[in-house]
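Aim 2 progress update. The chain analyzed this quarter is reproduced below.
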Amino acid sequence: MSSNVLSTSAAIGFGGVVQEYLWNFENQQLRVVYETLGKGSPLLLLPSFSSVSTRLEVGELAKLLAPNFQVVALDWPGFGESSRPSLNYRPEIYQQFLEDFVKAFFNTSVTVVAAGHAATYVLQLAVKQAAFSRIVLLAPTWRGPLPTMGASQQIAGVVRGLVRSPILGQALYKLNTTQSFLSFMYRRHVFTDAAKITPSFIEKKWHTTQQPGARFASTAFVTGNLDAVREQSDFLELVQSLIVPLMVVIGESSPPKSREEMNALVALPGVRSVVILGSLGLHEEYPAVVLEAIQDFLLSPEN
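Predicted structure tokens:
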């Protein structure tokens, strides 16, 4: 699959070298923005999927990792500063993208640190091929918000179709990405320290949601169309099939259903785990705490 790497100066990053990867999928070219910081062995740092997903959510963690690693963080297709065409966003897109990106940029197995919903994609690629040397999952999830709330695939599909529609869809999306709603969601299950959810912080998040085409991938995530597995047993089976070291970081204030899923994961033999401050956004809210929790695992010659 053909690709090019181009420098770009217009992007807003966390202090690294910002570039773009031109990726072709089904005869359509997508511009994927990524950022590289630090020197040393390579480390792929993947943000979570969400309505406000960007590589900036892992930016502070990237800066903390940079003294020991060459960190590569990206904006997933459909999110952040990457292209946001009106595709039918589904697991196949992200499975193929991650495989192609890793193949294009790393000539050996690479350490990967992945947040939230990126977990399943990392595990699937790790089981498929020797892409990763060790894996850290930060507050991992495998099921989108609507399915987690109990919505059936049929209901989720109806919602997805409505939000994708030209006029009504834009209105519905805007209602669910107001600054007040984003603030509510952050307070409910993303951050634990309300003092960090400042008006300027929320305004930046809101700005991300208002970019052209932002609703398509976001709605796919919310309605479960980016769930690469449908059952907990399938997610756990991926972990059981791993042959590389795995560490899981859990926020002590994670929502109950998400915490149950994480507990089932870390109960498996061979999975290292730690519980720290935070909730689903622990990697953004407490990057220094995350680093302290994972650095021995990342730097040790053997696990």
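Residues 91-105 form the longest helix (15 residues). The chain has a mean pLDDT of 92. These observations will guide the mutagenesis experiments scheduled for the next reporting period.
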